Amino acid sequence: MNTPAEAAKAATPTTPTTATTATAPTTAAKAAKETKETAPTTATRGAPGTSGAPGAAGKAGTTPYLRLLTATQFAFNIGFYAVLPYLATHLGAGLGMAGWLVGLVLGLRTFSQQGLFVVGGALTDRYGPRPVVLAGCVLRIVGFGWLALADSTVTVVAAVVLIGFAAALFSPAVESETAREAVRHERDTGTPRAQVLAVFSAAGQAGAFIGPLLGSLLLLLDAGFRAACLAGALVFVGVLAGHARLMPRRAPAVRPDDRSRRSLREPLCEVFGNGPFLVLCLAYSSYLIAYNQLYLSLPDEVERATGSQAALGWLFALSSLLVVCAQLPLTRWSARRITPRTALVTGLAVVATGFAAVPLTPGGPAGLLPGAVLVVLLTAGQMLLVPAARGLVPDLVDDRRLGLATGAMSSVSGVAVLGGSAATGALLDAPAPVRWAALAAVPLTGAVLAAFLRTGRDRKQFLRTDR
Q1: Nearest CA among 439, 432, 438 for reference residue 361
Q2: CA 77 – CA 82 distance, rounded (Å)
Q3: What's the helix, strand, coil split of the chain in %, to 5?
Q4: What count of other Cβ atoms lies within 10 Å of the Cβ of residue 357?
């Protein structure tokens, strides 16, 4: 949640739709100047659960559906981050796993989540987001309960994979719906889509701020890792109940008669045969490999510097607090001053700088300064690149494939993380300059790839006519 993708659908005779589409005027010149990219030129479906036209929320604020999706991300991350920051320590110190095995288990969790996003995205396109979100909530509850009781490698791996797969169902559905709504909101109000996606990211980080503190509190009270798992499961019980009641039903992106005639092979070939989209996926993968080091290399650095991981929760809280406070102003600035591609390249370069700076930073109070520098720079890069990457997806893929494309971007990243986690776990015993230089090279490579990414109106027009 580890990739948050939507677009306006073109009204062409060959494109099946679930709602009537009509040509709409281009976005006002002011909005075009703010976003530095061409606004969608076709109308999109109205927000599910809203009354009347897509612009029912008016020119100010966001739609009720966007607020529901944003609250969803907030609650989801509270439950998730109450457990995940402490998983590596539980596996190593609690269950006695070797470092490479801990890295592999963490990689399996990421792969079962990010790597299988393509499944959740395809199911969202086919059946709509509501049943996929509800199924994901149920599986996450079961997975956290199982992890609380697991005491062997096999049972831990099974529980971790189930937890990851639950997110692979839940997140693509929520992220693709948010992206679709952000494009519609951009067309109706002129608000850059990146700002809407930044609100979504900030809400998720607010949850990520509270989650580790909840887990730390339980650990300080000697309740243990099991209590943190059960607390996470309880949060998802609330998420399930809320969405069963409030999440509206939306017609799937592909009509039933299309589902009966078409296999999954055609949309998969369409998405994975899209060269610029794959470049975006690879660039985003480099970010996710780097971000995964918050759960692998950062705990090791904190323990090396202080003798324990007691401060880990506070560093996670620092990251989340930075996003909550700075995400929206930074995104407003970048939307007006630089293109999404530039934001993506710059963000990856900042992340690389964070890793390169660790061995060069002198130890500060309690020895946490290098770790804090890493967290601050990685978070700053994340704030630039994540809304930009999500906002680029609608310009690179057809609207009918938004769910699948959203999942595919995370799936490619998950495969990359699975291969990279065991390797970076093995680097834990390498000399510090070697380890941090190798880690810095990953997002730097992604920045080089992103610099050659082809985006914009010409790319979208190609997608509309090459069918």
Answers
A1: 432
A2: 8
A3: 75, 0, 25
A4: 16
Strand ranges in 370-458 using DSSP code E only, listed in sequence order: none
Q: Are 215 and 228 in contact (CB under 8 A)?
A: yes
Q: Select from 378, 289, 297 the least CA-distant residue to 111.
A: 289
Least confident window among 125-134, 163-172, 273-282, 419-428: 419-428
Distance CA 152, CA 84 (A): 18
Span 294-327, pLDDT tens digits = 878 888 888 878 777 777 778 887 887 887 788 8
DSSP 88-127: HHIIIIIT---HHHHHHHHHHHHIIIIITHHHHHHHHHHH
How far is CA 197 from each of CA 73, 292, 385, rounded to the nearest angstrom? 11, 22, 11
Residues of the chain with pLDDT > 90, as a percent, come to 13
Q: Which of 467, 450, 304, 448 has its CA nearest to residue 370?
A: 304
- The total of other beta-carbon atoms located within 10 Å of residue 404's CB is 33
Mean pLDDT of 152-178: 86
Cα-Cα-Cα-Cα dihedral sign, residues 10, 11, 14, 19: positive
Element containing residue 284 per DSSP (H, E): helix 275-291
Give per-residue pLDDT as tens, 213-260. 787 787 777 667 888 888 888 888 988 888 888 777 765 655 544 444
The C-alpha atoms of residue 463 and residue 396 are separated, in whole angstroms, by 8
